[in-house]
Specification:
By secondary structure, this protein is an alpha/beta fold. The protein is built from 17 helices and 13 strands. It is 38% helix and 12% strand.
Length: 476
Amino acid sequence: MRILFVMRHTGYVRNFEWMLRLLAERSHRVHLGFEPDKGADDAASLAAQLAADTDGTITHGKVPPRDDRWRSLVFGLRQSVSYLRYLAPPYDADSVKLRRRWGRQTPRLVVRVAAAPVLGAPAVRTAFARAARAVERCTPRSETIDAYLRDGGFDLLLVTPLVDRATQHDWVRSARGLGIPAALAVASWDNLTNKGLMFEPPDRTYVWNEIQRREAADLHGLDRDSVVVTGAHPFDHWFDWRPSTTRAELCAETGLDPDRPFLLYVCSSGFIASDERAVVARWIEAVRHHPGLEQVGILVRPHPTKGRIWAEGSAASLPNVAVWPSLGADPTTVERRACLYDSIHHSAAVVGANTTALIDAAIVGRRTFSVLLPELQGGQQGTLHFHYLLRENGGPLTVAGSLEEHAGQLRDWLESEQDDSWRRAFLESFVRPFGLDEPAAPRFVDDLERWAGSRSLPAGAQRRTSRPARRPASAA
C-alpha cells in the first residue's frame, strides 16, 4: 500500500516509530505529511532517520493547508463546537484550564455568549452546536487537499491526532469523498479528552485500550465497532530495554552521591505546569526537611519542551541535587532513550505532576508518586486522563494531598519491602491489554492490513496478505 500519514507536526513521529518501521519492513510505502506548524527539530531528525533506515520506503514533507474562502468559517465553527464541550459533562468546574486553552482559538463572540446566563444555558449551547455542525457539514471540501490526495495515488490515509485544532478534519473528509479509506491513529493517552471534537468520523480508529475505546464512543460519537484496541505501541520498546550504565556510572555523570538512593522528578508539559521550577523547589525543600529523607539524592529531568528554563534555575546548585539532561532531551534516539531509561531504572522512586513519564516508570518497574498542589490543579484534577493513573482507578500512582503527606509516603516506600504487585493490573489494562508479552505495533499493522485489504481500495492499491508479526527490535 501507499499510505499518507498526516501529522499535526513532526513531534508526533516518535509516538509511531515502531509501527512505521514495521510498515516499512512489510514493504508498505509511507509518506509522513506534516501540517504547516512549528515542529520539534529532534522529531524532524527522527523522520529523516526513519527515511534513511528504510531506504526511502518512508518519506516525509509538508502537506498543503486548506486555503480557500471557506477556511475561516469552517475552522471557526469547529473551534466553537469543540469549545462548548468543556462547558458540559463530563467536564466540570475543575476543567477551567482546558476551557481557557481551547478558548484562545475560539471566536471571541462565542466565548462571551457561552458565558452569558441565558444564552449560555445547556439547551441553548446544545442547539447552537447542532446548528454549527449542520452548517459545517454543508461547506465544500478543500480542492487543494482533494488534489493532493488524488495526485499522490494514495491507497490509505492515516491522521493523528485529528482532534487537535480544526485542520485535519478536511483530510478525512476529502479522503472519504474520494473513496480512500481513512483511519485515525490515536497518539497519546490524553488526545480524546483534552483536545477538540470530531467532525468527520474516520472509517477506523486505533486506540490503546478499552478506556480510549469508550472515550471514542462516548465523547466523540464513534461507532464502537469501528474502534480497534491495539495496546500502547509508543511504549513497546521499554518492555525489552536494558540499562546502558551502572548506577555508579549514572551517579558519576550526574554528580549524585552513589552511596545514597535518589528520587527522580520528571517534569510535565507546559500545559500542566508552565514553569515547574517553583514547584520543584518547594518539593525539594519538603523532601529534605522530612525525617529519613534529609540525605536522599534528587535528580530532576526537565520536560523536553521546557528544558531551556532550567538553565536559569538554581536547583542543581543544592547538595546531592542534579538537573539532567541540563536542558531536557526528547527521547527520539537510542542514546536519549537510554538516558531516560537509566534515570528511571536506577532511581528509588519517580515523582511527577501529570506526565507520560509516569507511565514509562510503571513499565520500567519504579513506583510513582504525585502531590496535589493548588498551582497544578488545572493540569491534574482538571483533566480526565490524570484520573486513570490513580490507584483507586487501577492506576500505579500514589497521590498525596499535601507535601508533608507526600514526603511521608516516599519515606515509607523507601523503608518498605518493595514488591511488584502495584503495577501489573495497570499495565495489563492500559498499556498491553492482550498480555504483557504482546507488543502493540504488530497488532496495529496486522489489523490495518486486514482492514485495508477488505475494502474497495482505489485503482492501483496493492492488496497484501498479513504475515506473522515481529516484535519491534529493542534499540538497547
